[in-house]
Amino acid sequence: MSIIGHASVPSGRAKALLRLSGFRRLLGTRLLSQLSDGIFQVSLASYVVFSPERQPTAGSIASAFAVLLLPFCLFGPFAGVLLDRWRRRQILLYGNLIRLLLCAGTAWLVLLRVPTPVFFTAALLVTGVNRFILAGLSAALPQVVRDRSLLVSANAIAPTMGTVATTIGGGAAFIVRLFLPAGPHANAALLVLAGLGYGSASLASRTMSRDELGPERGPQARQPLLQVIAETTEGLVDGVRRLVRDSRPATYALAALTTLRFCYGLLLVLLLMLCRNTFATPSDQSAGIRWLGLALAASAAGFFTAAVVTPWATRRVGVGGWLVWCAALAAVLTPALGLLFAPIPIISAAYLLGLFSQGAKISTDTIVQTSVADFYRGRVFSVYDVLFNGSLVAAAAVAAALMPSSGRSVVVIVMSSLLYALTALAYGLTLRHSRPSAQLHCPVSSSV
Fold this sequence. Notes:
- The structure is a single chain.
- This protein has about 450 residues and is an all-alpha fold.
- It has helices spanning about 10-20, 20-50, 60-75, 75-85, 90-110, 115-145, 150-180, 185-205, 225-245, 250-275, 285-315, 320-340, 345-370, 375-400, 410-430.
- The longest helix is centred in the C-terminal third of the chain and has 33 residues, at about 285-315.
- The relative contact order is 0.15.
């Protein structure tokens, strides 16, 4: 989950950070790890969507979404429990090494043409480890940036550069895939490439000392693990209780964003099926990969545009008002562009929906941060993380039940548009009764 940061970091602070050897080494580990994440995600998409030996279905795509996101829903809230008990440098070292071995084993399974559930199980292990890696990278940052005046800038630079690295890795994997012959060997090659990247990240982590990234031993480290896990579960329940009882603006914003994320998931599955089976003939994998790469690049461009547009928009209509505008514009543009089922309108829609989805998320981040007491904020963001990722998994499951293999689903387009419109209306009505924090006029931004 990306937390609000500054859209731009003064060059002086960036230079000061890069003079810190610990920050440079941790950043290098992050970049190699997240670059490999991009390659792995494309290898998963290639196996599910573009393998010539199988006709992809919405159900198989839903399974891929579950593999990528369920670890964040199931393990995410508990990752911190172990990160506060184990040396974080060791997690980065051995976690990436484990992913290297898992990628190699998964590539071998692909070559053996094992049943799809076996492949998904192996891939799920890779993404499960990834939850701990990403949390460890964030938790370790204060250990290498001791100057608190630089920490905000570090939190803006590191996640943003990590996202860029994931995008570059995914783009590079798409290009490599275009030049490989169709078949299991191409998918296995991408998995091996991702594994080598994870191995490089593991080596990069060795440039830091064993105890450099903490954690500092606190009372929690001496508690029995099961007791800490039980307390974490209780904290999640308490976070939900606090949301509903004391933080109505945050509750309404999270409900709105969860619905918008669900719509985005429906349309993302539709996009994948269109690129694979409608924009190109099923036998022409290269054309399908090109269309999908272009559409995902357009969506990513929309995410980055949101970081620029959102501060300007919120100064004029407020944070909550911008969330309403994002939902309302998506309601209008989804059928206007989507019902044509043609490449250029669909790619344009991918860009705009990326912009509106990320704009709504930035607004929700801000509302939660300004309307939830600091003492409960961590628990609320854990609930946020589960809702954010779980809604996408749920959307993929619903799409699997509704969508034909061609992706030409009027039902999905109309349903998404109606949900966007209802969200804009319902959330707009709540703003009349919410505290001023939900209607702030402030220059927010986010590291994407």
